[in-house]
Structures are given as C-alpha cells and as structure tokens.
Design a protein that fits this description.
Length: 397
C-alpha cells in the first residue's frame, strides 16, 4: 500500500464489504420472520450466531492473510481437488443469491420511485456494473460499502427507537430463551459467514496487498468488526420488528421487514425501507459478484487478467435471470440454508491448513482459536445435519 491511510481504508473497507455482503434482502426477511416466530427469544439465536460467526471468521481471515493465498488455493493444497469443489459450491451459491439480491434492489427502487421491480433491477445492475468500470474499482467498492452500511444502520436505528421495543424483555430472553430453534441458528450463521460471504473481506485484503504475519492484529480487528457491523444491523432490525409484533401488529406477509417502517411513518416509511433494502441489496450484488469471481480467477490467467469484466458478466447474468424468471424466493431460502452446510466444509479445510507448513510457513496458529474453530465446525455440522433431516422429514410427512 502506498500510505498508512490507504491501508486503513482497505482494512475498514474489507470489514464493510463482508458485512454489507451479509446484509441482503434475505437477511432482512429472515430477521423479521424469525423475530415474529420466536419473539424476544430470537435474541438468544442472534447471540449464539454471533459467537459462531466470530469463531469461524477469525480463523478463516487469519489463515488466508498469513498464507497470502485465496481459500480455493489453500483447499487444493490441503486436499487435491478440494479447492475446485469449494469454488463450485461458492460460485453456484453466489449466483443463486445474487439473483435474489438483484431482485431485492429492484423492489427497493419500486418502493422509492414506483418503478417496476424489473426496471429497478436493471437500473441497480447498471449501478453495480459502474463500480467495476472504474480503474480503481477496489477503492470505489470499499467506499460505497461503507456509505451504504452507514445509511442502512442509521435509518433502521431511527425506526427501532420509534417502535419502542421491549428492550428489557429482549435482553432477558437473550440469555434465558423460552424456545430454541436450531434451524434458525444454521440459517443465521449461513447467512452471515456461510458460502461466499466470509471470504469477501479476506480476499479483498489480499487484493489490497495486505498479507503476512505482521498484518494479523489489524486483520483480527477487521474480521471481528465485520461481524459486529452485520450483528448491529441484525439486532436493530430485530428490536424494530419486536416493537411492532409485541403490540399485536401482524407483519406484512409479502414483505415482513417493511412492517416496522410502515408502522412508524406510513407511506414515507415504505420509502425509507426502500432505501434500506436497496442499500442492502446493491452492496450484496457487488460483494457476491466480486467474491465469486475471486474463487475462479486463481484457476485461469484469462479470468485473472480480465477479472473486472468477469465480475460485470456475473452481474449481467444475475440481472437477466431475475428479469426473465422473476425472483426465485424458494431458491434463495434454500441457498441461505445451504450456506450453513458450506461453512463447516470450508472452515474445516482452513483449520487443517493452519498446521501445514507448506501453507502458513512458521506461523503458529493460537490453540484457543483452533479449538474454537473446530467447535464451530462440529456445532454447525451437527445443526446442519439436523436441519437437513427435519427438512426432508417434512417432505415425506
């Protein structure tokens, strides 16, 4: 990096890229839906998911930065072919999610300006493409993610205070829940650090030239900051929704996350929500495209040379599919859960790499961090299998 200021901006940008990649339309809908189902006890699910998120992300970011290699390159070194398998999972999940992200951006412009969702999706796709047409696309992406992150949190925070949520009850049930649903934990962790999301910031750091053991203190801070940014948004929206459902107000079945905004400010509230969901969606479009292509650029010199063009093509394909077939809500929900299955596979490979001198050199990964990582692998593996069993069980009832 040419200066300390640029380096700090890259580190903060990586945190916001990861956080805003996590905060998409699915994130908003899931948070509202689960709050309606579990009420104040959803706070416990959020708490557990935050702990699992941090355990996963700290390990993944540190090993990637120490090694100076992307996740797929590390995986291929651990087990030949594992990197190709991981890349296929991430890219397929990223594409499916991006179709939903483009759809969410279209709905946002529909709420703000009254445009058709399809036209809104096309305009949003063009906005995302413009980022990668710039020579300094990385810097533009960092600043855009930061701006959109602040906008989302500020507007939702305003709505949260206006709904007057039962904060004391939420705090109590965060530690002593009345009900626990393992599927919600898998879905939240998968939606925050599953699939492509946790790699977004780590790969961005490598692209910014931040790597090696000397960078670990700032990398650790950045990785935890990213989780906290996403979690702050989750908690604020949880409280905003809890504020309305605790008053006996039913959520809008078609757009549950919009309900507290409409409750607070009527038609103006819908416009505010439109801004929030557009900001959440457009940053997720950018993050998904950038990270998905980073998983294949290492396998092809052509992709690496023309990476921005490939990212643009990824966005174009997502937009065309969305406009052609509509928002694939069932696919989006399924992939959100499947992201939880990808996490134990990816994290397990990264943890095996932590003790491989061919990957990390003389670096000694902290024992407590390794143990916490394996706890996440085991916990998410068990919860994912349980989720899969229950989901298939419902199909045959």
């Amino acid at each position: 990096m040419s200066s300390g200021s640029q380096r700090r901006n890259a580190v903060l940008g990586a945190a916001f890229l990861m956080a805003t990649s996590a905060i998409g339309p699915g994130f908003l809908t899931q948070t509202a839906t689960f709050t309606n189902e579990l009420l104040a006890s959803f706070g416990f699910v959020i708490l557990i998911s935050i702990l699992l998120d941090i355990g996963a992300q700290l390990n993944i970011w540190r090993i990637i930065v120490v090694s100076g290699k992307r996740a797929q390159e590390i995986a291929n070194t651990v087990f030949p072919g594992a990197g190709y398998f991981l890349s296929a999972l991430v890219v397929m999940g990223g594409l499916a999610f991006n179709i939903g992200n483009v759809g969410g951006a279209g709905l946002g412009l529909n709420s703000i300006f009254g445009l058709s969702p399809e036209l809104g999706a096309v305009i949003s796709g063009i906005v995302a493409i413009l980022v990668f047409l710039r020579k300094e696309a990385g810097i533009v992406m960092d600043r855009f993610a930061q701006l959109m992150g602040f906008v989302m949190i500020a507007l939702t925070l305003y709505v949260m205070f206006k709904t007057d949520p039962p904060v004391a009850d939420a705090l109590h049930r965060t530690f002593i829940p009345e009900q626990i649903n393992p599927i919600t934990i898998v879905t939240l962790v998968g939606g925050t650090v599953g699939g492509y999301i946790t790699f977004a910031g780590a790969h961005r750091l490598l692209d910014a030239g931040i790597q090696g053991e000397r960078a670990l203190p700032e990398v650790s801070r950045s990785s935890v900051t990213a989780i906290l940014i996403a979690s702050i948004m989750r908690v604020i929206l949880f409280l905003a929704v809890l504020g309305v459902v605790s008053k006996g107000i039913a959520l809008n079945a078609g757009n549950p996350a919009e309900t507290p905004f409409a409750y607070v400010a009527g038609s103006a509230g819908k416009i505010i929500f439109g801004i929030v969901i557009w900001a959440a969606s457009i940053t997720s479009v950018i993050g998904a495209a950038y990270t998905s292509v980073s998983f294949i650029s290492g396998f092809s010199s052509v992709v690496a040379k023309y990476r921005n063009q490939w990212i643009i093509a990824f966005i174009v394909i997502s937009t065309i599919v969305l406009v052609a077939i509509g928002k694939p809500e069932k696919v989006l929900i399924l992939v959100g859960t499947l992201n939880g299955f990808i996490l134990p596979i990816a994290l397990g490979l990264i943890l095996l790499a932590a003790s491989n001198h061919h990957i990390v050199g003389n670096y000694k990964h902290p024992v407590w961090m390794t143990l916490s990582g394996w706890i996440v692998v085991i916990a998410m593996g068990i919860l994912s299998i349980k989720t899969l069993y229950e989901s298939f069980g419902k199909l045959f009832v």
